[in-house]
Amino acid sequence: MSNLVHSRSSFSSLSSLTVQPLKLHRKPLASTIFTSSSSKTSTLICSSKPNNGRKPMSRKGKKSSYGTSRRSILKKTFTQEHVTFTFPVADDPHVGIIGGGMAGLVCALSLEKIGIKSTVFDTGNHGLGGRMGTRKIDPQPLIFDHAAQFFTVSNPQFAELVDSWLEKGLIRQWQGTIGELEVGGQFVPLPSLPPKYVGVNGMRPLADSLPSQTRMVNVVRPCWISRLEPFNGMWHLSENGKPCGQFDVIVIAHNGKCANRLLASSGLPLIARQMKKLDLSSIWALLAAFEDPLPIPSGAPPFEGAFVKGVDSVSWMGNNSMKLFSKNNSPHCWTIFSTAAFGRRNKVPQENIPSATAEKVKTAMLEGVEAALGIPKSSLQMPYYSRLQLWGAALPTNSPGIPFIFDPHGRAGICGDWLLGSNLESAALSGMALANHIGDFLRSAIGRPEEFAVGLHNEFHPIEGHDIGQFSGLESRANPKELQHLN
Ligand SMILES: Cc1cc2nc3c(=O)[nH]c(=O)nc-3n(C[C@H](O)[C@H](O)[C@H](O)COP(=O)(O)OP(=O)(O)OC[C@H]3O[C@@H](n4cnc5c(N)ncnc54)[C@H](O)[C@@H]3O)c2cc1C
């Protein structure tokens, strides 16, 4: 932790640079100090001079780290300097949240509750939500939830939030039959309790409507934050060189390759190291619209969702037409997910799926549906519409088991599902907890920042659950060894 500790005197003695306000602050303007995360190199100061409206210059004139190799990202992560903000923040702090999935959105809503304004940046071209994706294909239209299917509730704070969504008509209970479908067509319904919830028009509309009635949450979309720079006591965010604003505190509300790259040269090595410990599964999603209903195995009820067991290429199949519209006529829109093991074996770059792989995967997944339903090979009707997608960073397979990570010296935190588990509830609880912690941190006048450090060194442990996440009360019968095998 020595890299974190910097007295004001060491700063003063090094500083030939004057500290002047950028804008009117009643308190002194925050200064920014960089130190190396390795103990060998010494301090570097980032000035607090007024910048006359110019955007921050990049430290060491480094180019964007995007597009660099994994090895170079790793090297940067472990050798980058650590930023330390010293003086108090402005009276009216502004939090920048990078990621508008469940975690980032709930973080913003929870900050508003305690009177703190925020701006949420999200890359989504079609809407907010990240892995709460809903795809609508016109003109018919065909509708598919193509990541999160439904959620359950176990935590009282999440229950409160869910009740408010129910009151506003954003979600409802999914009353349809869900069960486990064993290879060969043996279907076992799951109990109707605990309640299962879905977005009334799909998951993405739920995400899009969350910030709609807020006064202190600003949403910027589509926007891909490609750089974080500490300067003049603030975090400056930019998208490919275009400034996106300056913030007193930042929240990283996304994970995976994108977050690793963003953090690799940010001045937050402790956060970057924790993020790099995260392992994510890969899952193929096949969206398929059928003219006729799928053949339900004899003796089974007409189920709307099934966790598939004993089939390598399929872990879940869900009927969106029934779930969202109780519609039992054509088109029948099904979302079919692969297992994580199948996803890992057939992983390709998700932005550039070779057509041969797409064909192979689609065939294997449709054969998997036949096997699950217990019908002869090649007897399944062909979907008249289909779309294949790879979730290359689908679900966390390990977690530190703490609600968030916060670096008080760098005035930055992370929230997301993976900190607690692998579902929407974990993501929401993580966003909520981080917001409250930021509130406490800001209210404390930042007297003893080290007291607010959370999760910077925690170990990670494997996560158990279904291949598409954890559902309290609907625990998986998956073999934990199989899950460890993914790491
Ligand atoms: C196939 C699949 C099925 C699932 N099924 C279920 C289910 O049935 N039930 C359940 O509870 N959970 C399910 N999950 C898990 C659930 O979707 C996630 O746990 C949850 O959505 C994670 O939310 P998050 O906010 O942590 O992250 P995300 O949803 O990933 O949000 C991160 C956001 O940040 C954005 N972003 C990334 N980089 C940047 C950047 N540089 N600048 C700006 N924005 C950026 C991303 O575009 C994204 O919108 C499923 C997941 C998958 C993949």
TrEMBL record:
<dbReference type="InterPro" id="IPR036188">
    <property type="entry name" value="FAD/NAD-bd_sf"/>
</dbReference>
<dbReference type="Pfam" id="PF13450">
    <property type="entry name" value="NAD_binding_8"/>
</dbReference>
<protein>
    <recommendedName>
        <fullName>Amine oxidase domain-containing protein</fullName>
    </recommendedName>
</protein>
<feature type="region of interest" description="Disordered">
    <location>
        <begin position="42"/>
        <end position="70"/>
    </location>
</feature>
